[in-house]
Amino acid sequence: MPSKTEKHAAPAGSKEKSSVPAVEKALDVLEALAGSPLGLTMNEIVETLGRTMGEIYRVVIYLAERDYIEQDPDSGRYSLSMRLFELSHRHEPTERLVRNAIPLLERIAFQTEQSCHLGIVNRSNVLVLASVRSPRPASYGVRTGGMFPAVKTSTGNVILAFSGKETQRRYISRLAVDEKAGLRERFDVICRKGYEDWPSEMVHGVRNLCVPVFDKRGIVAALTIGFIDQSTPPMTAEESLEMLCAVGEELTHSLGGVPLSVTDVAG
Predict the structure, then answer these.
(1) Chain segment 38-84, per-residue pLDDT in tens
(2) C-alpha to C-alpha distances, 148 to 38, 142, 181, 251, 264, nearest whole angstrom
């Protein structure tokens, strides 16, 4: 318990909060790597966090020993391992979401012959919880466990469009000035339509078809088809989107959520 002297040492009007330096540095490292899909060298981690090598070196080594991060033997860059992803799957709501979604993703991929995935927002990134590739021998898809900047994805924008205003405000406040332009309008269009049909900002020639998924708490995830033009497609993009919307409602029902068709999205 802090002593009276320690309590009175805090500046007037400041909030008291617990601080565990080693834990704080470890979380800083994990968050920095989560925002760097290509990974970071030890020196880049130090520079990104604005700390000294002495503060960070042992924390990075310990996280690597515990398999939370891994180092590429060729480039020397550190990146997140699958450890956090595996831990998240032990959390019951996440496990249920993935368990209910996978058969539906398989149905989408089989009938549309397009790859599809389920994603959530984790701070400023999208984490892919599950993905199913197209049954065609040549296709586009994203890997399970992949992380992408939310601002660059339809998954991120759809989830944030149906999130509370305060969540949107905090998210937008962390973005660069050029990334903020038009986001409010984009959120409004998504809410009005109930989905997003948007050219991929990461892969040319891919058309993102994306719908929200709700549980009893509200928006929880999004389903996305990375639609590409193929010869003799079994479904058009419009037909694939229609199926995706129906599957999104089915998954929402299974999670105890209220489907979008009867949700007051304006609220």
Answers:
(1) 899 999 999 999 999 999 999 999 999 998 999 998 899 999 887 77
(2) 11, 10, 19, 23, 29
153 is written with which tokens?
């994805």
**Confidence band, pLDDT 50/70/90 cuts, at residue 90:** low
Averaged pLDDT of the chain: 86
Q: How far is CA 227 from the centre of its chain?
A: 19
Biggest CA-to-CA distance, the chain: 76
DSSP class of 150: G
Q: Cβ distance 185 to 198 under 8 Å?
A: no
CA distance 131 to 21: 37
Instruction: Answer yes or no: pTM beyond 0.70.
Output: no
The answer to whether the beta carbons of residues 122 and 147 sit under 8 Å apart is yes
User: Is the sign of the CA dihedral 258, 261, 265, 267 positive or negative?
Assistant: negative
Phi, psi angle pair for 23, to nearest 5°: -65, -40
Helix (H, G, I), strand (E, B) or coil at 62: helix
Closest alpha carbon to 117 in 84, 139, 138: 139
196-199 and 116-122 beta bridge pairing? unpaired
Tens-digit pLDDT profile for residues 119-167: 999 878 899 999 999 999 888 888 998 889 999 999 999 999 999 888 8
Beta carbons within 8 Å of 158's beta carbon, 6+ residues apart = 190, 195, 196, 210, 211, 212, 222
Nearest to 60 by CA among 28, 21, 20: 28
